[in-house]
Amino acid sequence: MTSKVRRQFTLEEKFSIISRLENGESNSSLVKEFSSVKSTISTIWKNRESIKNDFLKRPEGQKRLRSSNCKPVEDALLVWFKQQRALHIPISGPILLEKANQFGKLLQVENFSCSASWIQRFRQRNNIVFGKISGESAAVDSNVCSTWLSNVWPLIRAGYTDDQIYNADEAGIFYKLTPDKTLRLKNENCSGGKLSRERITVLVAANMNGSDKRKLLVIGKSKNPRCFKNVTSLPVTYTNNTKAWMTSAIFEEMLQSWDNELRRSKKKILLLVDNCPAHPDVKLNFIRLVFLPPNTTALLQPMDQGVIRNLKANYRKLLVLKIIENIDEKRDSKITTLDAILMLNKAWSGVSTIAIANCFRHAGLNEADAIISTSDAPDNEPISNLVSDEYISIDDDVVTSEIQSDNDIVSSILNEAEDKAEAELETAEEEFGDPPSITEARKALHTLEAFFLTRDTAVQSELNALKLLDNSVQKNFFKHIKSKQTHIQNYFSPV
Predict the structure, then answer these.
(1) Transmembrane residues, as ranges (predicted)?
(2) Total-model pTM
């Protein structure tokens, strides 16, 4: 009986084997493919950390595995592949090969002819492995939610506390829409993005007990709106694409950033999302990504149980107040992307912890009793009458993501002039203007202090907040004076 020869693997081959094992391929399949023995593959897996470190220290090795001589084609093919898998469409090697050739023609890459070896390297670079398809997609019946909550959810959430369980969802917002336009736009078909010039998409995420409301992710159309001029920081994370939609690339980038943040705090979480095409299955170290069953998000998604509606109600009240303020001050009532971001941040801070916890309970994910608080009761201010249910829900059906056509994918890769022109439509917004001076900031704070001191409703917490702001402005004032004195001294110092 002839025994198998123990072959020597290169560092690149070892790294590839580890990647494939991490993606679910079996030890036995790799033994057969490489004509090796089981103990050799097991040893490589046992020493995976040191092999990874050695490989990543070699830029020439990393380049051989990860680079492509036709990067635009690879980028387009990867976007297309992720879209198809999000729809659970089976994709084989020959299908990838044919699609790569199609993208090569669309991108006008000269002398590109895809081969089986190119597809193999493409799979290795992007950790794409073969997997067996089990079962078929089936229509969701009326019992699927209760069955999932009873039998599946307890197993998924086991080992996670309420503060470690999160939900995230997108919402489209007509950020310039005023109440008097509501009736005219009521029956507008928004699915094709006809009003995309007036909309943004926002990703909302929070944990089960509401103790952590994540910073909002806002997706606009323009990369650098003029209204961002002189603005050095935003209270939200801002990104863009020409449709102001969530894409798989944006979603994956957000998750990787969040995962790195959790790595630093050494905390692991469970994140529930719906299974739309813009939500690819991403391998993460500190986030366990769980997809809700198809067609059940209206019932099982906590953000859809009132959190997003609460956010929109708060935003539209702030929008109406700003319009009234502009009228009173005889200012032009233009609403810029920056205005929308600042108001959305305030609106998000107004969504209470209790409201979020109750939405998780209403979705059936938390069996705790509902929490009632008088602070959550709707206000009785006259302004609330301007924010009708119809006005709040006018953009509920706006699409936040959509399957990209081949031309859409190619356009995003090439960043064609047509897409640039479309994105630049938003850059016509009013600029933020010159930054307020320290003197103007101090004057504004003194005005606010006088306002609260002359009101019977003033509370100590408001005055304390003003004091903190005043101290912060004062520090900047002293820095300004010090730098000015240094400049004057240098000017008059002898040469």
Answers:
(1) none
(2) 0.63
